[in-house]
Amino acid sequence: MFIVELSFGDEPDRLAARPAHRERLQALRQEGRLVMAGPFPDDSGALLIFDVPDAEALAATLAEDAYYRTPGVTIISQREWSPIVR
């Protein structure tokens, strides 16, 4: 599993791109590649947990969604995670 943390800026492009991004997240959830995702209450960023086998699969998954390249969206952290309780 991998955890991705995003930081959000005030650029209007981010809000315009969000509906398509959220649809993509729903598809990833149905495919089993996304465990959970959501913004922080202050809308300063978000946290996503992906269930993919390796960093290459994570990179490919992120590349499928233009939201991660949208002005106002910054990936600030990507870390492999080994949960012990599920």
From TrEMBL:
InterPro entries: Dimeric_a/b-barrel, YCII. Residues 12-75 form the YCII-related domain. Belongs to the YciI family. This is YCII-related domain-containing protein. It comes from Micromonospora jinlongensis.
